[in-house]
Amino acid sequence: MTLAVLSASTRLGLRRAALKVVRTHLPGNFATQSELAAALGITRARLLALKKGRAEQFSLDALVELAMRLGLKVRMTITRPYSRDE
User: By mean pLDDT, which of 23-27, 39-43, 64-68, 79-83 is the weakest?
Assistant: First the structure.
């Protein structure tokens, strides 16, 4: 098994990308933010942080869990970087 260690900036970039996807799929059919937060299984404060785009307050695992609760399918693809010689 190979362990890949990502830099802090790479992890934050992944979280920002995941947060953007989750934010765009938030349903708008709830009367209050409290109802939406309860439906997602998070607190209202976490919902506000999500809506304001505060990626540093969420782990990638938490964002993946939220995406799945929203009915999204989560996939990850890891590839070898392109070589400049090719």
Answer: 79-83
Q: Of 29, 53, 26, which is closest to residue 40 (Cα–Cα)?
A: 26
* Token output for 27: 């349903």
Distance of alpha carbon 23 from the chain centroid? 8
Give the pTM: 0.78
Please tell me whether residue 69 adopts helix, strand or coil conformation.
Answer: helix
Q: List b or e across 32-71, with b for residues whose CB sees 16 or more CB atoms inside 10 angstroms.
A: eeeebbeebebeeebbebbeeeebeebebebbbbbbeeee
Q: Is 84 exposed, middle or buried (0-12, 13-18, 19+ CB in 10 A)?
A: exposed
In contact, 39 and 30? CB cutoff 8 Å: yes
Task: Measure the CA–CA gap between 27 and 54, rounded to whole angstroms.
Answer: 19
Contact between 36 and 66 (Cβ < 8 Å): no
